[in-house]
Amino acid sequence: MNRFFTPLAPLTRRRALQAPVAALAAGALPTAWAQGTPPVSIPAPLQIVGPWEISGLAPASSGYVFTRLQVTETLMGASDDGQPQAALAQRWRVSADGLQWHFALRPAARFHDGTRVTAGAVVRSLQAAQVAPALLSQAPIESITAPDEGKVHIRLQRPHTALPALLAHASTMVLAPASYGADGKVRSIIGSGPYRIAVLVPPQQVETVVFDAYDGPRPAIAAVRYLAASRAETRALMAESGQADLAYGLDPASLRRLQRHAQRPQHSQSASHAPVRIASVTLPRTVIVKLNAGLPALRDVRVRQALSLAIDRAGIALALMGDEALAATQLLSPTLGDWHNPQLPPLQYDPEAAARLLQAAGWQRHSDGLRDAQGQPLHLVIRTFVDRPELPLIATALQEQWRLAGMAVKVSIGNSGDVPRGHRDGSLQLALAARNYTNVPDPTGTLAADFAAQGGDWGAMGWHSETVVQALQELTRTQPTPERTRALRGAITLTLQTELPVIPVAWYRQHVAVAPRLAGVSLDPLERSYRLTGMEWNNP
Q1: Contact 283/510 with Cβ under 8 angstroms?
Q2: Among 517, 26, 528, 526, which Cα is nearest to 246's?
Q3: Residue 364: band (very low, low, confident or very high) from pLDDT cuts 50, 70, 90
Q4: Domain 3-58+193-276+515-537 carries which CATH code?
Q5: Backbone CA torsion sign across 429, 431, 435, 439
Q6: Which of 55, 103, 188, 274 is most deeply packed, by most CB within 10 A?
């Protein structure tokens, strides 16, 4: 349910949050969905709390929950820098013309119901993942076949170099045939990862235990519970009180408090009350303003540029994200390597230049301080959501900075699904989101989805550039020389920087509260996995 946002009142007292924390930790949740297996005795689990709800069993909507928990696997994996890695496919090769891809499966892989992971099961899952708007539907696939039980063959209509990255996306997770109902819909999650589901309670809870027949090393952590908690303050308090071992999605105020506690002298802390520590990783994610450039008010590039020039990115990054270096000077951050273009003139904060552009575009100030053009007031609504706790705060800061520039913007807090719905029905004006540009490990795939000729749910709306479309097509359909690849990427990033179909605000750093009893924590910069198999309990 949408509501218009008013600035948040200061947090009253910690005890105001104790009741929801206790209720969540005690498991005050709906009845679990049956998974077709008998109840199991679950050892004391590692507790993860995060903001992401389980919206259903369809891989395209909630597959990331199950891949992060290492319940399901994909045909391909990806290294930290996005390069293809083995997963269910232990080997792969592509024909010289780029049209035929051959994948050899791990021979000992088993599903959680005890059946073999066969090529036929992989084919069924991949065929289901080809249905739009799932990302695999972008690939020009002619056929997916199983020449024998251990091999998968994908034939393309034309070369598509991003195919391995698409096959590493959570929406292509491979499920056992028994996962599907007679109607072809997913009825249960039977994967092949090192953990299997013991309890599943959408939209809030998943409990997993080690899968004894997994064909890799046995994890040291025997059981895991994931809990979705919408309030960032609740997640932080669960970490502080020992009710969560890993807490994702910390709000800025809680993060600062936890960091202060972690920096206290060790002699002032007893072993039984050791503070949580903070693990951090810079993500290939950017906080962006998505604009409907089809609106008369935003069609003029000068207005979009003025909106950008009115943003004090350094102030937002320092005050709300704790690090001025996260101020975005362009769309793609330095963590994306060759996609970050150091030759671009950086995005600036210049209110006077913004005023000149608005005046040149015909927008005149009136006595109330607001601008309009030809009698049409510039009143806009920016939608955002609380999945990333910084977003409502950043939206409020943007609201004030744009007001000073003469643009009236109202903040509406809803659900993350409101953004793609608004894109599709045309009602969206502005949206604030934190876009992951390695949603597919190779940024080319995500950029191709966001800036296609028809736009994208989290990208362009009412805008397209043939330069960008053609350059992305060349990158995905051919294997250009390194020099040509650099030129194509440069053309894409320059066009996006100049025309601003989305406005970058800040780059993103993931902070996670880690319990003192947990060791071996490593954060995945691509957010594909919680890396549970690398963790272990600290010795008392």
Answers
A1: yes
A2: 517
A3: confident
A4: 3.40.190.10
A5: negative
A6: 103
What the block records as the tokens of 22 is 């206790």
Digit-coded pLDDT (tens) for 289-326: 999 999 988 999 999 999 999 999 999 999 998 889 99
Q: Are 197 and 207 in contact (CB under 8 A)?
A: yes
Cα 67 to chain centroid, rounded: 13
From CA 183, how far away is CA 171, in angstroms rounded?
A: 19
Domain ranges of the chain: 3-58+193-276+515-537, 72-179, 283-509
pTM: 0.81
The mean of the pLDDT values for the chain is: 88
Distance from CA of residue 10 to its chain's centroid? 28
Whether residue 199 contacts residue 30, with contact meaning beta carbons closer than 8 Å, is answered with no
C-alpha distance from residue 107 to each of 91, 119, 150, 214 (Å): 11, 10, 7, 12
**What is the DSSP track for 131-148?**
STTSGGGGS-EEEEEEEE
For 78, 274, 397, 407, 413, the CA distances from 402, given in Å and listed in that order, are 40, 44, 9, 5, 18
Query: Measured between alpha carbons, how far is 429 from 381 in angstroms, rounded to an integer?
Result: 6
The CATH number for 283-509, chosen from 3.30.450.40, 3.30.450.20, 3.40.50.720, 3.10.105.10, is: 3.10.105.10
Q: Element (H or E) spanning 278, and its range?
A: strand 277-291
Tokens of 474: 């060349």
pLDDT in tens, 51-105: 999 989 999 889 999 999 999 999 999 998 888 999 999 999 999 999 999 999 9
Q: CATH topology for 72-179? A: Dipeptide-binding Protein; domain 1 (3.90.76)
